[in-house]
Amino acid sequence: MKTIIEPFRIKSVEPIYFTTREQRKEILGKAFYNPFRIHASDVLIDLLTDSGTSAMSSSQWAGIMQGDESYAGSTSFFRFEESVKSITGMPLVIPTHQGRAAEKIIFTILGGKGKYFLSNTLFDTTRANIEFSGGVGIDLICEEGKHPSIPAPFKGNMDVGALERTIQSIGADNIPLVMITITNNSGGGQPVSMQNIRDVRKICSAYNIPLFIDACRFAENAYFIKLREAGFAEMSVPEIAREMFSYADGCTMSAKKDAFGNIGGFLAMRDLSLALQCRNLLIITEGFTTYGGLAGRDLEAIAIGLQEVMDEHYLQYRIRSIEYLTNKLITAGVPVMQPAGGHAVYIDAKEFLKHIPVDQYPGQALVSALYEAGGIRCVEIGSLMFGKYDDTGKLIPAQLELVRLAIPRRVYTQSHIDYVSEVIIEVFGNRYGINGMKIMEETPLLRHFTAKLQPVY
Description:
Blueprint: H1 21-30, E1 45-46, H2 58-65, H3 75-88, E2 92-96, H4 99-110, E3 116-119, H5 124-132, E4 136-139, H6 160-170, E5 177-181, H7 194-206, E6 211-214, H8 218-228, H9 237-246, E7 250-254, E8 265-269, H10 272-285, H11 296-308, H12 312-331, E9 344-348, H13 349-352, H14 362-374, E10 376-377, E11 379-381, H15 383-386, E12 388-389, E13 395-396, E14 402-406, H16 414-429, E15 437-441, E16 452-455
Parallel strand pairs: 1-10, 3-4, 3-5, 5-6, 6-7
Antiparallel strand pairs: 2-8, 7-8, 9-14, 11-14, 12-13, 15-16
Helix pairs in contact: 1-14, 2-11, 3-11, 4-5, 8-9, 12-16, 14-16
């Protein structure tokens, strides 16, 4: 197989600022060992998130110059609306300034005390918006998704047996919607099969529960279906995407992922009554229904990006580049989520740092070690992000202790990725010198964004 080359040429660059290990030690201490507190100028390779960090195309930049900034009825909105409709088939499109704003609106309306929302795996802001409303989020990941080192083609799937049992236990009237996240970010960026979406749809229909899709990475998920699921090899990515959405009653999306946007998102749905409620809340919190907290130029960039992301040459490069880094780490014995996901490489921190107990946050310890060793910024997806406390104050750990290295779209070259692998392998070789972490200060919701930590010596 020939080298998979980047399907683009570089037209504009920005500098990377280099730091020494001693400087990074000092920076980590001042940031209280939290990567969100580190200044971007002090980061060599920024893999904290793939959200809003993509490089936009020349067509998107040209579209920005065409942005219609009219307060109401902007022509840019109608181009945006048509782009979303062409992919999702959903007639009611509501723009928001980013994905969590869409989540805030839908869960404010449908949530509340005594309400339960079932998912394959909810991501951090989704769960936080559910809990802020007074509701409860329940993850029902399939059995394969619970074992990072054992490969399976669709580890992002929902456990449909558990779904039906949970509905029967809680009562359908207490479940305003079921949500499938594609790809499953908290579950290692793993895809969801079309058959699983159909099966979940069937159960939701039987109990009259709406099904929504968290569509942040819909194109990556569609491409995995094309590669791995029987019957889809000859279908185009847009055709597969339309079928995925055809089983859903609505969707939320952060356009900062699979639309290459630096900002933006949307809600789309089929229910006019629900859409009217969402639009009323949108006007109070975000802006008018034809801009929703976005400038016209942002609407233009998203409309173009949603179409560009479905190009199969791009998707082949995207998936293969994640696989390239994953395979290099596997060869070196580094424990990672297998097979490679769509947007990130996930290190199994519990296995990587066996000597650190989960109540000392091995994922956060590894995040800090990678920054100190090589200036790489990434994020813990484990008990710091998702852990809870019981009535006695004891930590209830997350199901998985992962470290995510999210690769921004169209930003880094193969030499950058080779450098990342070298740093990880070096840290793996010195792993027994890494200490655990303890929390000094935290907030009740989304604590990982602002928490202050220190090493446990």
